[in-house]
Amino acid sequence: MTAPHTGGCRCGAVRFEASAEPHHISYCHCGDCRRASGAPVSAFVGFMADQVALNGKSLKSYRNGPVERSFCGICGSPIAYTDQRLDNRIYFMLGAMDMPAYFRPTVHAHVREQLPFLHMPDALPRELKTSVSRPEEQRPSETQS
Ligand SMILES: [Zn+2]
Ligand SMILES: [Zn+2]
Description:
Elements: E1 5-8, E2 15-18, E3 24-28, H1 31-37, E4 42-48, E5 52-55, E6 59-64, E7 67-72, E8 78-83, E9 89-93, E10 108-109
This protein binds zinc ion (2 copies).
One zinc ion binds at residues 9-11, 13-14, 72, 74-75, 77.
Domain CENP-V/GFA: 5-137
Family: Belongs to the Gfa family.
Keywords: Lyase, Metal-binding, Zinc
């Protein structure tokens, strides 16, 4: 399967289309994604934002520090997140893609926060924290070790 890649929310009010291949596909085990999704682990498909068309008046967003998460204001489906430190990148929830089976994750991020009963027996690399390096600017609680 090749681009365009499409997706949307559960009720169909929000739709998006990416005109190129993703640059990043990962699982995230962090607590912030867990809260936002309600699921024990999240997965994301990252595209260049200028290669994405996102439609839907019902799209709402919630900002927490540099991270902004969007969701459908009608059905509540989580859609994507952006990070101010990652210019021109947008990360869609893998489950929002129309063909989710096509987007096989290549890495687990934030495994330090992985739930102890969650076992995912694959050979993918595990990152203790983020799998995408951000420029400097770390919150005090996230001092590099
Ligand atoms: Zn919706
Ligand atoms: Zn996360």
